[in-house]
Write a structure and sequence with these properties.
2 copies of one chain form a homodimer. In chain A, 46% of the residues are buried. The model of chain A has no long low-confidence stretch (mean pLDDT 92). In chain A, the strands form 4 sheets. Chain A has a 6-stranded mixed beta sheet with strand order 2-1-3-8-7-6, sandwiched between helices. A 5-stranded mixed beta sheet of chain A has the order 14-13-15-16-17, sandwiched between helices. Chain A is an alpha/beta fold. Chain A is globular. Helix content of chain A is 40%, strand content 26%. The interface between A and B is large, with 103 and 104 residues. Strand 14 of chain A pairs antiparallel with strand 14 of chain B.
Chain lengths: 407, 407
């Protein structure tokens, strides 16, 4: 069944926010066997909303909209859908009761919040258990439109608890088989050349897609239809064999989860000492629920003073080699492992940019040291010129470097 | 001039990646006076690409596409644009020379990378100075299409250095006047009620949009046309007066930059001691270039052992009150300020979830302490149930709490 996602809101068209909703929705819908054909973002503009829905229904069976349901003047989705479906807004006591259950102090419900209880007359209202904007479900000529709030938390609850189960009950799907392979040590084109023969021999209804990210290539193998399971298993085995040691993981999980799983499996603990990454590695590691089982903590030593006083980096190491050097990252890793009594440590010192570069240490120069039970590996990386990207890349390379030691 | 952004790639439609490109592009185009009318994401599918471009040109003057230019089989944008414009691919020595200048070892250029030098015959080729995929610019019947790589770093360079300047030279724009106001202490509906009279008196061609984020409301006031400048200034003054003390900043910058600016201005230094935020506050603070002027460092004390041994939190404070308590965050803030000799400190301890909650300390319970020259403020927050969201919200509330003390 074909689906279009329509995100409504001026703030998206002027680039004030990044639309993370539609990736989340697309992922969940794909897993549920739906085919997301297009994602469209448009403004809070009644005629554009109507026209976009009309055009989308020429190509898909289901339209899911998010946004434009807030209590303020610029939010016009609910009214516009009334016009589109030729109905009117009516007050719903049931929705008001739901709102009263949501807000912390029902006595304080103001007029604008109360207005959220107006809903289109001819539609199915789905109660939003985590926010004040009701969800509405329209059907006409076999096509379905669901309007949801744009607040990510609310949309996610509504999709999982209500919309996807109802869509699955309404349609019968032919599921997609797919598998993700995380591969390290190859560039996109080198990997493609390595897999030329495999790709040439793939059955015509199979697909193989490449998705590069810093230090890692994601491969996605896919085919539609449960009956292709035996051939799918055969192709997965061929691909695994071809990838060999470069295959990091056969699940689409973030690097920090791969690292966490291995640490937990082996009963090891980790601490990080971060300069240019500024705590981003610790943030990634602790973004995984349950990371307290293996993560002790981190010292962000942004200043040299903290490097020497907290991490015991010899002042002479900094004076003689500079803060971005092999000697300093080795001392940082040793220091933090001692301070927090851990089996493993990661340390990073580099020049994230855009300032701070010198001719022999240009912006993007990063030293990473990883330590496992006393043994150390220190490597230098030459990254790019963009601060944010350098922080992300250094974070990934640091985790990959430790993974390599733990293999 | 009206613009449509078309993002091409199956990985977007299955939700494997979040499209951050189009928000970045929309922001830059808006500032340059262009009106982004729609953003569309579609798959690597030739007929869908052709149809989407065709439909978009009925509504807009400029189409900017990203993606589908990689060296592998699943990337078909270049070939499809040839079909759409009735032209063919020809080999360009000039592009090959550019590629040789990009890759670290030109001797190692493989066949797939060499294929990147094939470009459509009837188009303007723009050299991509930061990647191997060439940028192509097509014109037909007064309408422009530019095809760019989807790699964010490459797209950003191409847009800033080439595409926006060329579009600006090609069209004359009527610029948008707009201003962003960051407001703290209001919910969306409470702020809307506070501003009812202001909104009712706004001239009809003005707009005011609300964008909620954790702890902060963003307001955007806008009007088209340079000649509205005097009225725009008048309305900005009215709005400033109405917002009063709740007005945090009149620039669309992140909280960590507002905080950084004040610390720099006042010559103060900062350290953080983080438990449930896991280094995310330090990451945010150091994401600002130049933060080394005021940020000394951070201790992520994820385990109780690190709280006591590194931050000097009394073991009895943890035993008697639990790690998520006023006593512990006060000791953490004091400890990190002493350890790193800073004027200010932020400490956070909470239950990010999904596990670890108890009846009297449910998931989402977070204690935050901020310290400024010895004085402390400790507050308890009851956040939600989603781990990632709790980490983001605690980060924002912690920075807001320190800002409040520094006012």
């Amino acid at each position: 069944m074909k689906v279009a996602l329509i995100t409504i809101g001026d703030e998206i068209l002027i680039g004030q926010i990044v639309d993370t909703n539609s990736a989340w929705m697309a992922h969940k819908l794909t897993l549920a066997g739906f085919e997301v054909r297009e994602k469209i973002s448009i403004g809070d503009d009644a005629s554009q909303i109507r026209n976009t829905i009309d055009e989308a229904f020429k190509r898909v069976d289901v339209v899911l909209t998010t946004g434009g349901l807030g209590p303020t003047k610029d939010d016009i989705t609910k009214k516009t859908l009334c016009d589109y479906y030729g109905t009117e807004l009516v007050f719903s006591d049931e929705v008001l009761d739901n709102i009263k259950g949501i807000v912390s102090d029902p006595a304080k419900i103001n007029e604008l919040t109360r207005n959220q209880a107006f809903v289109p007359k001819d539609c199915t209202v789905i109660q939003n258990k985590v926010g004040t904007a009701p969800v509405t479900w329209f059907e006409r000529e076999g096509k379905i439109l669901v309007s949801m709030p744009g607040v990510p938390l609310e949309m996610q609850w509504v999709m999982e608890a209500e919309v996807i189960p109802r869509l699955q009950a309404h349609y019968k799907q032919e599921a997609y088989l797919f598998k993700v392979f995380l591969v390290s040590g190859y560039t996109e084109s080198a990997l493609a050349i390595h897999l030329t023969e495999f790709e040439n021999n793939l059955p015509a209804d199979f697909g193989l897609a490449y998705l590069p990210s810093p230090g890692i290539m994601k491969l996605r193998l896919f085919v539609q239809g449960e009956q292709r399971q035996p051939e799918f298993v055969r192709q997965v085995e061929l691909l695994e064999k071809k990838l060999g040691n470069a295959l990091l993981c056969e699940e689409d999980i973030p690097l920090e989860k791969i690292l966490g799983n291995i640490l937990k499996q082996k009963g090891l603990t980790l601490a990080t000492a971060e300069s240019c990454t500024g705590g981003h590695i610790a943030h990634k590691v602790t973004s995984i629920s349950g990371s307290s089982a293996y993560f002790e903590g981190c010292v962000v030593s942004y200043s040299n003073k903290v490097k020497t006083s907290v991490l015991n980096v010899p002042g002479s190491a900094i004076e003689n080699n500079g803060a971005v050097s092999e000697e300093v990252v080795r001392a940082m890793a040793k220091g933090v492992a001692q301070l927090m009594s851990t089996d493993c440590a990661i340390s990073v010192s580099g020049i994230a940019g855009p300032d701070g570069g010198t001719p022999d240490k240009p912006v993007g120069t990063v030293w990473i040291c990883t330590q496992f039970k006393g043994k150390q590996l220190a490597q230098k990386y030459q990254l790019g010129r963009i601060r944010d990207v350098n922080i992300l890349r250094a974070t990934n390379y640091a985790m990959l470097q430790l993974l390599e030691m733990l293999k």
